[in-house]
Structure prediction request, 432 residues.
Amino acid sequence: MSIITGCWAREVLDSRGIPTVEVEIELNSGIIGRAIVPSGSSKGTHEVLELRDGDESRYNGKGVLKAVENVNSVIAPEILELDARDQAGLDQILIELDGTKDKSKLGANAILGVSAATVRAASIFLGLPLYQYIGGIGAKVMPIPHVNVINGGAHAPNRLDLQEFTLVPAGAKSFREAIRMSSEIFHALKKYLISKGHITSVGDEGGFAPNIASTEEAFQALITGIELARYIPGDDVYVGLDAAISDLHVDGIYNLPGENKKFDTDSIIEFYSDLLHKYPIISIEDPLAEDDWNGWVKINKELGDKVQIVGDDIFVTDIVRIQKGITLGVSNAALIKLNQIGTVSETLDAIELAQRAAWGTVISHRSGETEDDFIADLAVSTNTGQIKTGSVQRSERIVKYNRLFRIEEQLEGISVFPKAKDVFPHLKFKNT
Prediction:
């Protein structure tokens, strides 16, 4: 009764009003699993291909009817009569059916939609929550959230060069408490920004987009918000940074126009080191360009015992690139995004590889999100202990937090909200 008897896709909209792919998988039991594929605006060049129509008469060329047609006409006939519980087998068929390294023939958005919808259908068929279906009885670790509260870079129309400034409430005692703390700080920060004459409009991921240009000013605002909410920076709540700096790297130079500064690799590492001395930064994502491998080796040697260094664009959830990173020693953590690689099985392989290397793993959303809460279950299923899914504003972000509230409730007495020292074992903390 878990045999796939139907597979179809449609064009829907993401949180930015840009088209994306939704897929439904029907089993012969009548069960239907559904998944909507997220989309990023800040993308690494090594990510698999998100297939777009290029027809400027529709959605400015960003339609996904080609990807939809590939699901309906190419993929569907090949997976009918397969058992939805054989996820690895199904994903391998999808990979071979496409036949390209970057999934450009069918589109990673078409492939991922089918892969994720099949996982959902199988979990419903077996009567298991998605996190338990994927992770089994060992799935119980609630993630520490990285909550986006100030946006810059590609995510906001302001002068701030670096992309995300986050709250990391690692001193909380539960996931629910972590989100409550973050919400209280978010609203305290809003009042503070208003008092300074800033417009508190928000970026794609729900963080504020104040018209500031200085990285230090952004961190100072975060610290002020934490203190106004009556929490202790570096004890109750830490801060994090996603530099997303690849787009600012040209001919070996990191150009930060908002701050009117230029750096080579050595001097930008010094820039980050100086920030670490001033602020309780617990995690820095993409501090260097995606192909600056030598620079990554150096920053990990110099700062890797002081802060979590997360690779996103450099790894793109690809086991080949992650293995290269492990061999060279370029970081101590990897960001995990389903649509960077295109199937659930490959995503799980990437998580396992990073965890075997004792790296941190951070499950992540994209700037173009939807009401699909798949990544909430994925974080718990794989016990990553960290999730990055935006601010405590905008419903496409909140849906993930609300799902995690329900999971924590379901696992009452079983779940673990990790201590900072367990998720960031190479760091020294007041709060243990």
Remarks:
- The radius of gyration is 21 Å.
- Residues 4-127 form a domain with the Enolase-like; domain 1 fold (CATH 3.30.390.10).
- The chain has a mean pLDDT of 95.
- The first strand starts at residue 4 and ends at 13.
